[in-house]
Amino acid sequence: MREIVVDDRVVRLGDRLGRGGEGDVYALAENRALAAKIYTVADLKSRESKVSAMVQAELAKKAPLVAFPVAIARRRDGSFAGFVMSLVAGHKPLHELYSPGPRKQHFPHADYRFLVRVSANICRAVASVHKSGCVIGDINHSSMLISPKAVAALIDADSFQVS
């Protein structure tokens, strides 16, 4: 699939940015600030209702450092395909920071103060999820991305529990 339909508009998918157990994440060709997660699993009905609730609740506005769904992505036939979210650019996975070898390569200026700032910013990002009415049922380092300025962003938000 190279195209999706978002808000009744055909949108071209760009480069694949990642692959996970539930789906693939693509940049949007016409808007590099957005990405789309396209599910590859069979159970789409429960995911569609959950993602729809997240979009309707406008969770992305309540927690801007979390890649919450902002729109539903559909196939040309109208069936649910996934969702569109903000693209978290310029960040590295948390494990590139907490492992000493990769830290020297990806965060060469990271000192103790930087590590403490990152830790505090992860706590702030998690708190913003909880304040939005969601719960992170499974804290996972692979869902945390860190910028060179110690900003923490959370991805895989469709796995959060939502009312």
Write the layout of secondary structure elements.
Elements lengths: L2 E4 L2 E11 L3 E6 L5 E6 L4 H13 L2 H4 L6 E6 L5 E7 L5 E2 L1 H4 L1 H7 L5 H20 L2 E2 L8 E3 L5 E3 L6 E2 L1
Antiparallel strand pairs: 1-2, 2-3, 3-4, 4-6, 5-6, 7-9, 8-11, 9-10
Number of contiguous helices: 5
The side-by-side strand order for the widest beta sheet comes to 1-2-3-4-6-5
Strand content: 25-35%
- Quantity of strands, as a count: 11
Please state the average pLDDT score: 94
Characterize the overall form: globular
Give the N-terminus to C-terminus distance in angstroms: 31 Å
Helix content bin: 25-40%
SSE ordering: EEEEHHEEEHHHEEEE
- Largest sheet, if any? 6 strands, antiparallel
**Regions with pLDDT < 50 over 5+ consecutive residues?**
none
Give the radius of gyration.
Answer: 16 Å
Task: Provide a descriptive summary of the structure in words.
- It is a single chain.
- 29% of the residues lie in helices and 32% in strands.
- The two termini are 31 Å apart.
- The strands form 3 sheets. The chain has a 6-stranded antiparallel β-sheet with strand order 1-2-3-4-6-5, covered by helices on one side. The protein has a 3-stranded antiparallel β-sheet with strand order 7-9-10.
- It has helices spanning 44-56, 59-62, 95-98, 100-106, 112-131, and strands at 3-6, 9-19, 23-28, 34-39, 69-74, 80-86, 92-93, 134-135, 144-146, 152-154, 161-162.
- The protein is α+β, with helices and mostly antiparallel strands.
- The protein is built from 5 helices and 11 strands, in the order E-E-E-E-H-H-E-E-E-H-H-H-E-E-E-E.
